[in-house]
Amino acid sequence: MADPQGHEPKEPQRLDRQQLRRAIRHATGSTDVIIDVVAAWARIVGPHLAAHTRPTRCVGATLVVDADSTAAAAGLRLRHTTITNHCYAAFDLIIDRIQVRVVANTVLGDQ
Q: Which residues of the chain have pLDDT under 50?
């Protein structure tokens, strides 16, 4: 039966497994995915940059990353597209923004 504007109701669409996982991660900020990102971080950004940066959490579509210097933070910003593409391809993680925090007096690569 049509609504007052004449639009026919649509049948609910069933989500496939990947769409469902993506929706849950996006809605909940799941910590499971950040574990995967941390484990693959050196492959994503390269070993040199990985020694100076560390992803800490995912909040919605924002990846939060700590860096030990402004140079490392700039390196992450330059690799924004590479990071977002890799996270989507490998983990079905949609990232719209990377928030980089410079953490003073911290050696991130040893943790």
A: 110-111
The tokens for 30 are: 């799941």
What is the DSSP secondary structure assignment for residue 6, as one 8-state letter? -
Q: Domain containing 41: what range?
A: 17-102
Residue 28: what pLDDT? 55
Q: Decide: residue 94, CB within 10 A, 0-12 exposed, 13-18 middle, 19+ buried.
A: middle
- CATH code where residue 27 lies: 3.30.300
- Domain membership of residue 43 (yes or no) is yes
What would the two tokens of residue 85 be? 């593409």
The total domain count for the chain is 1
Tokens representing residue 16 in the block: 């496939």
Q: What is the pLDDT of residue 19?
A: 64
The three-state secondary structure class of 106 is: coil
Residue 110 is assigned to a structural domain of this protein: no
- Cβ burial 48-62 (10 Å sphere, 16+ → b, else e): ebbbbbbbbebeeee
CB neighbour list of residue 51: distance below 8 Å, 6 or more residues apart: 108, 109
